[in-house]
Write a structure and sequence with these properties.
The complex is a heterodimer of chains A (242) and B (262). In chain A, 76% of the residues lie in helices and 0% in strands. Chain A is an all-alpha fold and 242 residues long. Chain B contains nine helices and ten strands. Chain B starts with a strand and ends with a helix. The chains are: A mainly alpha (242), B alpha/beta (262).
């Protein structure tokens, strides 16, 4: 067996793993970026359904007062973000995949979609905080200038705020994207055949250690491209200051 | 008939009363200056006129049309509020230009977005675009910014930025142009160019409300001056009445503090 393992055959195998890694990476971004943006709006939502209680007898107590101030959408989103950011990603991967099996005795979804789902939820939460910071760092004056010029809220967001937000979130997003490339390796926990799993498999099958270390080259190359891409984006948006 | 009538405006933030029974009117083509110390409610008054704040009581009437009435509780759609806003233009203390657009694009943006709502936009897209661009170039030239049209805000001085902001506010042809301390964020040597532009607008009989700390300018350019203190209009009149025949003790104290400082 080990006789048939050559550098090029290992490379081919690892490339197969890289396809899975890349799929996880891109699909996670496709879903987590918009969901993260929605979550950031949720966290900033100021809806207070019990506001009319204010000034009544009911709101004089401590409970009534807290209830009248309650912003349920924001509270729910912030709680979810706290749980997801406050627990290990590896634990989430295991819980989402094995949870249904323990509860109902069968797998709800396959390994790859299960891992993807976990990554989407996890990264959407991180992205939401980055978006929230980006949106809140745009001066209120920008929105007010749009309002007095008769723009709609949608026009203000898409024509005025969004590009400024994108410019501001590029550096922290670069970090998250690079983290995501490496975090895909955690899908190995539920036997998704990504690069690291492929590299590790040679230990058992051929008693070879080097393919595992060789995976680092693939991660470095992947992240190298991302670094270049983000550098290019940053330069592209360098024409204005915000 | 006055172009603007403000009747009994009240505004509180929580338990703090910021505006207390403010009433005044403004004739078409006249310039009104509002003076007073910080925290006297001048800025809040302008923000109420531009619907950035909602008064707790009172009315705002423009050209005989009631734009705002606190007693009228029927909810307004966003589109209605937007339409009402267009009666007023606003120039902010901190310019608030859109950083990702050039000077010309800043002036054109709102007009372009508004034009998209016109029923004939699709057929005459090019013509409408050209008209808007032509008008914007004209306005920027009027602000002596011919050579700065394709500059981004960060490439312009504060005075130039504020002049772009004035052109941007004028682009929508508001009935009344409001200035919120337009020179307060500028270096002293840059205030002159902005004041000059406002002065020339006054000479062309643009209806304006100017909140300012530039007393000499207010006295020179305004047709009517309001002195505000603690959320009320303490005294109002022509510049001569207010600056030379000051009636009220608070006005006198305020003006003397100013002449000492300058």
């Amino acid at each position: 067996m080990s006789a048939s393992v050559t550098f090029s055959s290992v490379t081919v195998t690892l490339f197969e793993g890289l396809v899975t890694t890349a799929q996880l990476f891109f699909l996670t971004l496709v879903f987590a970026l918009p969901i993260g943006l929605l979550l950031s709006f949720g966290a900033m939502n100021r809806w207070q359904p019990f506001r009319m209680l204010r000034g009544t007898k009911f709101a004089s107590g401590r409970f009534g007062c807290a209830l009248s101030e309650l912003r349920p959408i924001s509270l729910v989103v912030k709680t979810v973000v706290w749980i997801i950011r406050g627990t290990p990603l590896m634990l989430q991967i295991i819980a989402i995949f094995f949870g249904p099996r323990l509860l109902w005795g069968f797998d709800l979804i396959d390994r790859f979609p299960s891992a993807l789902l976990t990554f989407v939820i996890n990264y959407a939460c991180y992205f939401s905080e980055i978006f929230r910071g980006g949106i809140q760092s745009v001066p209120v004056g920008q929105q007010e200038a749009g309002l007095v010029l008769g723009m709609t809220k949608g026009q203000i967001f898409f024509k005025v705020t969004l590009l400024q937000v994108i410019k501001r979130v590029i550096p922290p997003m670069g970090n998250e994207f690079i983290n995501l490339v490496k975090d895909t390796a955690l899908a190995r926990t539920i036997s998704v055949y990504e690069v690291l799993w492929m590299g590790e498999s040679f230990i058992k099958s051929a008693g070879l250690m080097w393919p595992l270390f060789y995976t680092a080259v693939f991660y470095l190359a992947f992240n190298g491209i991302l670094v270049l891409l983000f550098g290019w984006l940053e330069k592209k948006l360098d024409y204005f200051r915000a | 008939m006055p172009i603007l009538e403000v009747n009994h405006i009240n505004k509180s933030f929580g338990s703090t009363k910021v505006l207390n029974d403010i009433s005044f009117s403004l004739e078409r083509g006249k310039a009104l200056a509002i003076i007073g110390s910080s925290g006297s409610g001048k800025t809040t008054l302008l923000r109420c006129l531009n619907f950035l704040e909602t008064p707790n009581a009172g009315q705002i009437v423009v050209n005989g049309e009631t734009l705002f009435d606190a007693a009228d509780h029927s909810s307004k759609s966003d589109a209605e509020i937007r339409k009402r806003r267009l009666h007023f233009g606003m120039v902010f203390q901190s310019f608030n230009l859109f950083p990702q657009y050039t000077a010309l694009e800043n002036v054109m943006l709102a007009s372009l977005l508004l034009a998209k709502e016109r029923p004939d936009y699709k057929q005459n897209k090019r013509e409408i675009h050209e008209q808007i661009e032509h008008h914007a170039i004209e306005l920027l030239s009027q602000m002596s910014l011919e050579g700065r049209m394709s500059h981004y805000p960060h490439q312009l001085s504060g005075g130039q930025q504020q002049r772009v902001a004035i052109a941007r506010a004028l682009a929508l042809q508001p009935d009344i142009l409001c200035f919120d301390e337009p020179t307060s964020a500028l270096d002293p040597e840059l205030t002159g160019e902005v004041l000059k532009v406002i002065r020339s607008l006054a000479e062309q009989h643009t209806t304006m409300i100017i909140v300012t700390h530039e007393m000499a300018f207010a006295r020179d350019v305004a047709d009517h001056v309001l002195f505000m203190d603690g959320g009320v209009i303490v005294e109002q009149g022509t510049p001569t009445e207010l600056f030379e025949n000051t009636q009220n003790e608070r006005t006198r104290a305020f003006l003397s503090r100013f002449s000492q400082n300058s």
